[in-house]
# Entry
Amino acid sequence: MTKLSFRERLQQATPILSDGAMGTLLHQHGAPITTCFDELNLTHPEQVERIHRDYLEAGAELIETNTFGANRYKLAKHGLVAKVAEINRAGVELAKRMITASGKDAYLAGSVGPLGSRLKPFGRVKVEEARAAFGEQIKALAEAGVEVIQMETFSDQNELLEALAAAREVAPDLPVICHMTFSQDDRTLLGDLPAQVARQLYEAGADVIGVNCGGGPQQLSRILQAMHQAVPEAILSAMPNAGFPESVGERMMYPATEEYFADYALTFKAIGAKLIGGCCGTTPAHIAAMRAALDNPDLPVRHIHVSEVTLDDLMAVPERPTELAQKLAAGKFVITVEMAPLRSFVPQKLLAAAQLLKEAGADMVDVADSPTARMRMSPWALCHFIQTRVHMETVLHFPTRGRNLLRVQGDLLAAHAMGLRNLFVVMGDPTKIGDYPEAMDSFDVAPSALIGIIKHKMNTGTDQAGNSIGQPTSFTVGCALNMFATDLDREIQTLVKKLESGADFALGQAVFEPHRIELFHKRYREITGEDFKLPVLMGLMPLYSPKHARFLHNEIPGISIPEVLMERMDNAGENSAQEGVKIAQELLHDMRGMVQGAYIIPAFGRYELVADVIDSVLVSS
# Structure
């Protein structure tokens, strides 16, 4: 039977299965991470051939050349700029030889990656220089005999469009696959959404559009669905990583199993993908599992994640819910720990503390903003460090005090741009109690009003004045709540305003008498005629010493510590800190059925004691 052309094969019902990672396997087989992997086509061709052979035996129908970085800009970093054509030709010959030896009708794709140097105006490479560099590589691949050009892992849409234009100039008859890669927020590095990317690539004439690298199958299925909604007529492709990598020793390990990939092969097919494969961390075993799933129509489908949404829906809510929002919606018990930034620009100690809390089982970290009106590092910076270096979600405390409405909204946009999507909106401590008592203390908007601006304005795509902000924000917003307030009626009246404004959750005042939570619920029903349903992360403050306990009881408004707990701290002597942990564990156990989480506030930065408190939650779970 005559082999179908690549374009003809794309029209068949069963998707084309591509191969998986190349660089990951070369590294696993002994090539140092600093190696120019493309040069191995010349220096160690047997290593490249072995990987091609393994993917063919696994059932791959599309084999990519080992030329992802074989352009003049990347090769120049290794002193190989004069060997662009030679390395690309060798990459084609190796893959072609393995396909012939296999006896299979696999297609040969020339792999083309980004230049590694950004285009103007975000870099120093001119558009015409970029197009010439891509043209040089693609011409070598085409002349050596590839059947399709596969462009992959591009984070700049404009760079990918230049690469596509170069391909049309030097190899106008070859099909072109265009893959973008997206960050964890489902945007490109420059902020473009999947729908926008899909439309521009399709209009520019790409034969196949899709997504590779970036994240695992779940994220890529979500992005692919958005692309399909934007351009239903486009031919789609998806090649995910094997999950997010984790550094283990000197190696990067990827968690996604072969079975997981097999299920997602069917998810991608259900969305409409005609080309499926793998990227970083995937192996011939992953490809073999996907082959089995695609070839067996009776294979159970356990991970279909396709939902009926419109393009308007996708554009209106461009960001997925935060981890906090998802856990609250699922009714899970959430543990968050307050962290105060240091009076320093050095974050390493707090990052180590965040790592400790993550390993102990905390869900996220709350970062306070100038607690007790003391000068500290910006909480935005610490939140950003924790999220990018510890990979742990944060809740940014956002006081209204000291900010006018202009600054408030600008600060919110900046926070969202940095990936900070969970907010705790609060009035903030008066400056007169802190380091700078004469500092400006005025504000334009109260917490309840700001919650309304965020939820009903910014989260729908406008500022407070009704002007467009481009895309809607996706903040999850918390408010303050004291269930043990002396004037409970006034507290409830203020809370009703926050609920009407759209508060998603509340952080509660520290509890030492859990039974009083039920009294709050009773009074709330009496005043409003409704049950109280807002998720509350109840404050929990492990006592450190008898002196600490007396200070909280006598000097902090809203905190009342029963005498029996005072006596326990007094009797503990040198073991008072451990007794404080034990009391906190008991309080956590007692309140667990009445609230949806704990908001643990450590004394004197003793995060190791908080970790001990969290242990009790994991044991009881």
